[in-house]
Amino acid sequence: QVQLVESGGGLVQAGGSLRLSCAASGSTGSISTSAWYRQAPGKQRELVATISRYGSTNYPDSVKGRFTISRDNAKNTVYLQMNSLKPEDTAVYYCNTETVGGPIYWGQGTQVTVSS
Q1: Is the dihedral of CA 46, 56, 102, 8 positive or negative?
Q2: End-to-end C-alpha distance for the chain, whole angstroms
Q3: pLDDT tens track for 33-43
């Protein structure tokens, strides 16, 4: 019912910035909370940021102060601005969204690589 497509990943040097985008299509009117997750090889997928339908955000300590999640409901798009990137931020980043009374949807992921 909801399709998510991430974009904006790439290779960046430590200290640099990237902005990821997650475009949603389908039954977007049912979307409640959206989030970004990341997963590095051999590691468990971890939460990066969440944002409610109304703009309330949460971040883990690992990215707080460096990453900012935002959304444009008119464009059905969620963004993740990543500043002061570190090599430990290297991972595949996934967009996630919850729907009211429905399942959770995931995007295909976009690779972020931070070099030293």
Answers
A1: negative
A2: 40
A3: 999 999 999 99
